[in-house]
Amino acid sequence: MTTEDSKPASDFIRDIVRQDLLTNKYDGRVHTRFPPEPNAYLHIGHAKAIWISFSIAEEFNGLYNLRFDDTNPVKEEQEYIDAIIRDIRWLGWDWGDRLYYASDYFEQMYEYAEQLIRAGKAYVDELSAEEIRDYRGTLTEPGRLSPYRERPLEENLALFRRMRAGEFPDGSRVLRAKIDMTSPNLNMRDPVMYRILHASHPRTGDKWCIYPMYDWAHGLEDSIEGITHSLCSLEFEDHRPLYDWFLDELGIYHPQQIEFARTNLTYTMTSKRRLLRMVREGLVSGWDDPRMPTLCGLRRRGYTPETIRTFCQRTGVAKTNSTVDIAFLEHCLREDLNQRAQRVMGVLRPLRMVIDNYPEGQVEEFDAVNNPENPAAGTRKVPFSRVLYIEQDDFLEEAPPKYFRLTPGSEVRLRYAYFVTCTGVVKDKSGEVIEVHCTYDPATRGGDAPDGRRVKSTLHWVSAEHAIEAEVRLYDHLFNKEDPADVEDGKDFKDYINPDSLEVLTSCRVEPSLAGATPGSRYQFERQGYFCVDPDSSSGKLVFNRIVTLRDTWAKIQKQQKND
RNA sequence: UGGGGAGUCGUCUAGUGGUAGGACAGCGGACUCUGGAUCCGUAAGCGAAGGUUCAAAUCCUUCCUCCCCAGCCA
User: Backbone phi, then psi, for A102, in 5-degree steps?
Assistant: First the structure.
């Protein structure tokens, strides 16, 4: 990790683990797991959960498992399994041979269920889903006992076996734990352990028609794998008594569940349901749309795994609900990319510049630094000629205060090349400037004036004759509301989608050294931002995604001037 | 109005009876062949009220606010 902080993270979970190690609670073992349900793609929030579980195991010389919690075949698909594996690998985690599936434990879980029935702690209920809900009571009123609650053990056993055998239709019966219908914790009011689902499972096919519920399955999975610290998010706090109850009643190995707060990001939506909707309704191009907070989206956008891991570490672990400013993620990104990205010149919105006193047909090559943060990255040659392209933003006929770029009569530096002075412009019929004319000072070759005169600005440029065309996709936040999940009455989260989150520029010009750049490679276009070659690129046409802009103090000044 | 959690600068986070610190964002400045990077400076916080104590973010009491739970989802 090049950018990860050197000091080890410390938080309340690490404190607990340290304490457990001290008291030898699990024979000195630390073993965690990340248990995704394969019903969607992973997003930045999952990256945090993965980081918490995996980095803790790593730090304490423990082990970590990747385990698919595939207990609901109605929603789960192989596509998601494959994507999740790919994404976690990309983040840089290696679980060795410890890739598991809850479905591999179905038989064992079934046996445990029979054990509980024989112990008089579970029963087959024939109430309908609606009735069960009704019998459960409310937050303030206790529930009522199901009329099927006191069946003889043998009858429960027989019925449960027939459930497994497929003798009953979906929804007709469930297996319930017999706990306490008056518990103030609703999860303890005889929770459902198994439901009948005649659905084909991505891994077990049609072998099963009863599937375990989360609360019943999860502790068993942890127990079977010998997990020591089962880390999950806050909403499962209420479920912990149930997690404990099942394991205690069964008398089997008992890991401890510890809950932490999820990490949210401003201007970002991480609800699986809504992300799925955006994909299905075509609001984005897919799970890997570079605007998506999914790991594959961030990857395609150009984020590095190191950035994400650093971000996870620096935002910390706590039990307080938190929403981190996305600017912090972007800060981690820039910090990382600044160190590693090769510099290059690219003009997004080309404006033709003619240097009138530069010899026609002449071409010079200038040495350009590949990465000022890393001298070992060396230099490259950039061709220069009489006709160039500069950025439209870098010329203004009437310059506002503090505008240091090119303006009639002003002198600026063309990066690595010469000082040029603007002598005039050419306009089209509508009065739009379509060409600027300059003269250059041959004495400033390389970019420095021997007489010591200074310019206030340095512009990037490309030689018109040598530049290659490219498409550049400019991204902005997908939502224009700080908390898009906070949907006001009568609105839909779609109302908060930023209509300007994507701008496609098709006639950009980049320096010739970029020819042959491969998808996934990242560059800094000087003065503009970081860009990543998109897989949509073909041999004849480069497509870049803007990962993030450079910090832009001029944009800030402009904003202030606009407000004044 | 049941139960479970959480409240420290705008945001995230340290602190565990002894000077409330860091980071991002903000503001100001230096430097600069990227208005980048870097560097320096600056403003800003213990949810409230009582109590214990020489001393409280920290311990006690009461209150307030926010989040989660009534799936045969996870």
Answer: -55, -35
